[in-house]
Amino acid sequence: MATLFETPWSTSLFSNNSSSYSRSPSQVKLLHHNFSPAPKFEQTILLLHYSTSKHTYTVCAAAVDPPPPPEQNQPPPGDANVSLEVSSTTRDRRKIVKVAWEKLVRWSRSLRSKAKTDVLERTNKVVVLGGGSFGTAMASHVAGRKMQMEVNMLVRDPQICQSINQNHCNGKYFPDHKLPENVIATTDAKTAFTGADFCLHAVPVQFSSSFLEGVAEYVEPGLPFISLSKGLELNTLRMMSQIIPQTLRNSRQPFVALSGPSFALELMNKLPTAMVVASKDKKLANSVQQLLASRNLRISTTSDVTGVEIAGALKNVLAIAAGIVEGLNLGNNSMAALVAQGCSEIRWLSTKMGAKSTTISGLSGTGDIMLTCFVSLSRNRTVGVRLGSGETLDDILCSMNQVAEGVATAGAVIALAQKYNVKMPVLTAVARIIDNELTPQKAVFELMNLPQVEEV
């Protein structure tokens, strides 16, 4: 129903200094009345009269009753401007992201175009020490970089040697993965080292000294060693950067540490990851980068050998702690708190030893720590889970066919902490559990009751 009324008073709708408007009162008149059989709403409109010297105007001034509701799919008044602003902001953001990505791609192409390939081209032979899972994975990776290159794996187990040479697979660790045909296994050190351009050292840290002593006479003094082993020697507290040159009696033996988030199984499956090459010799680090970098393995370089090695050793101990939290079903909050505390402890010790704090937050630090602490493929985490579930350490180790470096490293960590006067409660608790001086439950209780201190 719509009803039109004429106003009983005069109203000036406009104000202008150059014009004058006459006002004359009028009576309310019913101008129009429209009856609807089924009205949805009623609307009353005021008609306002104003006049000049020549003309009189009637203008609709207001709708007294509310207008009809908008259709369901129509945006409310005022939303159009908001939509335009949002759309404009989205376009601007997308443009910024696109430009940033294009710059990154151009930078990447520029670096790739300048990258040298002469190291890979002139490398004819690589020797890999050890026939374990990671040594096998790296042998397969390097062999895939250049099919004309010979990759010799020096192993002690005749069965693994036979499996690799006859079936092109490591039957003990990767029975379902075919190795490149240019991977050859041998138990003879002289054969393995003769003519080698690089050596990948994948022997567990605790057995490295004795292994290297047995092959030292075949090692050329200029042969670069790329260490894949992570840990600290239990009695001497030595890192691999100390073990290799000292055992080979050559302080100038070229050395590189390789570390980062890299499970052997995923390397075998050619899944992408990134690692760090650490060496005091920048030219050597760049050479190893050329040798190893591929479509599925990104290699960065650093001179912080200490930071890379300490992080690689201590993350195994921290992974045992993370596994214990999982085995005790302490929850996600506990896991996050423990790993964060462990990362701080690793940083405290490594920086006291001369490492860069940025290394601990990088690939060989936080990257490797997250992988080892949170993923079930981790051997050290598995040890922790089983300890937290109530199994004894002896039973756990007897059932494993691979070495969990964190078990042996834990004791060395405490000795280092005392040497450098660093408090490491989480890693110390792991060492005490391994030495059977604390149960996992008791260790958690004692850690939770440590005095509150300011975070450093």
Q: What does this 3D model show about the protein?
A:
- The protein has 18 helices and twelve strands.
- Strands 7-6-5-8-9-10-11-12 form an eight-stranded mixed sheet, sandwiched between helices. Strands 2-1-3-4 form a four-stranded mixed sheet, with no helix packed on it.
- With 456 residues, it is of the alpha/beta class.
- The protein has four domains: 2-63, no CATH class; 86-115; 118-303, 3-Layer(aba) Sandwich (Rossmann fold), CATH 3.40.50; 307-448, N-(1-d-carboxylethyl)-l-norvaline Dehydrogenase, domain 2 (Orthogonal Bundle).
- The radius of gyration is 38 Å and the shape is globular.
- Strand 3 (43-51) and strand 4 form a beta hairpin.
- It is 47% helix and 14% strand.
- The protein starts with a strand and ends in an 8-residue tail after the last helix.
- It catalyses: sn-glycerol 3-phosphate + NAD(+) = dihydroxyacetone phosphate + NADH + H(+).
- Residues 304-444 form the Glycerol-3-phosphate dehydrogenase NAD-dependent C-terminal domain.
- Residues 125-284 form the Glycerol-3-phosphate dehydrogenase NAD-dependent N-terminal domain.
- This is Glycerol-3-phosphate dehydrogenase [NAD(+)].
Fraction of residues in helix: 40-55%
Oligomer: single chain
Overall 3D shape: globular
Can you count the beta strands?
12
CATH class of the largest domain: Alpha Beta
What is the terminal separation in angstroms? Answer: 76 Å
**What is the assigned CATH homologous superfamily of the largest domain?**
NAD(P)-binding Rossmann-like Domain
Radius of gyration equals 38 Å
Number of domains: 4
Mean pLDDT: 85
* CATH architectural label of the largest domain: 3-Layer(aba) Sandwich
Characterize the biggest β-sheet.
8 strands, mixed
> Residue ranges: pLDDT <50 for 5 or more in a row?
1-54, 57-64
**What is the CATH T-level topology of the largest domain?**
Rossmann fold
Q: Tell me the strand order in the biggest sheet.
A: 7-6-5-8-9-10-11-12
Structural class: alpha/beta
Helix and strand element order: EEEEHHEHEHEHEHEHEHEHEHHHHHHHHH
Strand portion, in percent? 5-15%
Number of helices: 18
